[in-house]
Amino acid sequence: MGNVIKGITDEDRISVEEYNEILKANTPHILIDVRPETAFSRGSLPNAINIPKAQLADNADRIKELLKNKAKEVNQEKIPLYLICRSSFTTSLSIPILRDQGITSKDIKGGLLEWKKKIDPGFPI
Predict the structure, then answer these.
(1) Would you tell me how many other CB atoms lie within 10 Å of the CB of residue 84?
(2) What domains, with CATH codes, occur in the chain?
(3) pLDDT tens for residues 52-69?
């Protein structure tokens, strides 16, 4: 088992470089941005869906449906769910919320700050 950080393990996380490769390869997945709507409206990654952390539990059925529909669309049994926020703090708190609802997800380590630093220096934060 990996290093436990804020209730999640290393297996619950991917790097911004790994996520960038997922985007480049057009690998089917769902990305949820857990920041508040005001932050999301300033800038978000391609195809991100905004569901703020405080609304995750109430949207569990919607998230399950999104995953199911995307998997069906690409003829796969299941597809991964990734979470992003500004710095990874909120996503690290979001993973257990979704886990309690029976939803597996992964944090993009360092969040959008890391994305801006390593992938897209012009990304608006």
Answers:
(1) 28
(2) 10-118 (3.40.250.10)
(3) 999 999 999 999 999 999
